[in-house]
Amino acid sequence: MKTLKLSYRSMWPKLNPNKMPQDYFFEYVLSQKYNVVYEDKEPDIVIYSVFGPPISKAEYTNNPLIVGYSGEPHEVIGSPDLLFGFDNNNRPDYFRLPLWVLFMMWDIPQMNTPYKLAGVSGIGQGSPQHESVKEQSVESPMNNPLLASKMTNRHKNNKLKNKFCNFTYSNPVKNRIEFFKKLSEYKKVESTGVLLNNTNYRMNSKTIELSDYKFTIAFENNIPFQGYVTEKLMEPLAAGSVPIYCGGDLATTDFNEKAFINVKNFATFDDVIEYIKEVDNNEDLYNQYISQPVFNKLVNYPQIVFDKIYNKLTEINKNLTY
Prior knowledge:
The protein folds into 2 domains: 2-111 and 300-320, Rossmann fold, CATH 3.40.50; 141-290, 3-Layer(aba) Sandwich (Rossmann fold). 26% of the residues lie in helices and 16% in strands. The protein contains 10 helices and 11 strands. The strands form 2 sheets. A 6-stranded parallel sheet has the order 2-1-3-4-5-6, covered by helices on one side. The protein has a 5-stranded parallel sheet with strand order 8-7-9-10-11, sandwiched between helices. α4 (174-184) links the parallel β7 and β8 (189-191). α1 packs across α10 (301-316). It is elongated and about 65 Å long. The protein starts with a strand and ends in a 6-residue tail after the last helix.
């Protein structure tokens, strides 16, 4: 197996490929055919994002492949050889790679490499991280709900819920605050994040703790892009809580729309809440949601991303052909 030198530039803060699935994704993808090592001086591939300046080939003497990635509502600037982003785009050498894909733990048999984080405890994220909160470990790392093998079978193993609805946010987006207050007039919605906290508790692990809730308010950051679909929808689905989702239209392509309540299907928030009341009080109707698979068909994003990178990489460097 050939060695591939990878460098990250202008990425999000506290990137840690040994801890967080979203930080490990590209290493995992490339490990299918290469021994991946990290090298900043003369890398074979440079992957950069929107959290710093764009990267130019002129910075290097060895002509590496430059890959841009943004899961955020900001386009990568510069002139990368290959570009991945959250939305649909007609730009040459572009492929849609929504943010939720990076948060998933891809232990799928089609890939030719083990998912090394599958056996690591305490990975993934809960409410927005801060130093005073100790991360909650999954009792058995092999049972992490973010594992593809668990998520694709989640609908077969749902536990009884003892709480109504969760709201875990730090970003004070107007529409999610309005919806939280309106739904709270019906029943208490437990806020376990920084924003509007009414529990004196900070949630540590969404995909573990959301399993106690029948519903989860899952509103994106009010971004008007069809493809902006993040972990905010995937996490409650993985946990077995019905998301009340407001976000990108492509959510109904990425996920099984019968498994969540899509706010965009209703004229007003009041209409959504009336329907939530109906689902909350009708066990059969609720079970129709919770018994649905998370995906209609899970797309093998790691393989697609590998193929895109490999084709470009070997155009530039024939020595890395396997």
